[in-house]
């Protein structure tokens, strides 16, 4: 696996946030290698300026290494900033109890997490690694999720990508169901929370 590929499992991946603009993938890898063997580094970049967006994902060889990194590397100073290292499952850029999570279905079996990231990052900041549901043998089940940092970005993604072709197959893009309910993300209550958080 190259350092740019994204993991297909989240347990071994950590979110590294509050990064100075001078931080590179190599610096993140060098720092995290002190904890355990690093398998992959992904540092999302702005498509226009090519500058990173202040965070990265780091995949370790094992979930234990990832847990250890969260314990010992969180709040470490790097270029004068106290970095954040936590689980991609728990991380949210806007911690207000909502997640503008999109459900992407009818995917070509060849579509991977990195292609989802590259496709949907055009609409806004993706706040954790996209996920594709997979069979035990690793093959795609044809659907996955992407979590953007705002409902405005998610709305644009639905409007522009629903029904569009991705790897020669039209995809369906909608809001995901809120876990444990029959209600979709993007409801009025969540949008109100987002509006209040931005005041």
UniProtKB/TrEMBL annotation:
Superkingdom classification of source: Eukaryota
Keyword tags: Nucleus, Repeat, RNA-binding
Subcellular localization, as worded in the UniProt entry: Nucleus
Xref: Gene3D superfamilies: 3.30.70.330
Gene Ontology MF terms in the entry: RNA binding
Any Pfam family matching the protein: RRM_1
Annotated TM spans: none
Gene Ontology, cellular component aspect: nucleolus; precatalytic spliceosome; U2 snRNP
GO BP, one annotated term: positive regulation of mRNA splicing, via spliceosome
Presence of the UniProt keyword tRNA processing in the record: no
The RRM domain, residue ranges: 12-90, 100-178
Family listed: Belongs to the SF3B4 family.
Record's protein name: RRM domain-containing protein
Organism, as annotated: Tortispora caseinolytica NRRL Y-17796
């Amino acid at each position: 696996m190259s350092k740019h590929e994204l993991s297909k499992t989240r347990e071994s991946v950590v979110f590294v946030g509050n990064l100075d603009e001078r931080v590179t993938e190599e610096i993140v890898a060098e720092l995290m290698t002190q904890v355990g063997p690093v398998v992959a580094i992904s540092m999302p970049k702005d498509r226009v300026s090519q500058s990173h967006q202040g965070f990265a994902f780091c995949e370790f060889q094992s979930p234990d290494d990832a847990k250890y990194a969260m314990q010992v590397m969180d709040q470490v100073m790097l270029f004068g900033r106290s970095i954040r290292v936590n689980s991609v499952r728990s991380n949210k850029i806007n911690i207000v109890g909502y997640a503008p999570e999109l459900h992407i279905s009818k995917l070509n079996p060849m579509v991977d997490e990195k292609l989802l990231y590259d496709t949907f990052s055009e609409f806004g900041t993706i706040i954790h690694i996209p996920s594709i549901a997979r069979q035990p043998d690793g093959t795609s089940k044809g659907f996955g999720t992407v979590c953007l940092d705002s409902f405005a970005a998610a709305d644009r993604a639905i409007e522009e990508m629903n029904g569009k072709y991705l790897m020669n197959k039209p995809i369906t893009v909608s809001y995901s169901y809120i876990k444990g309910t029959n209600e979709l993300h993007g409801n009025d209550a969540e949008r109100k929370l987002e509006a209040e958080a931005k005041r």
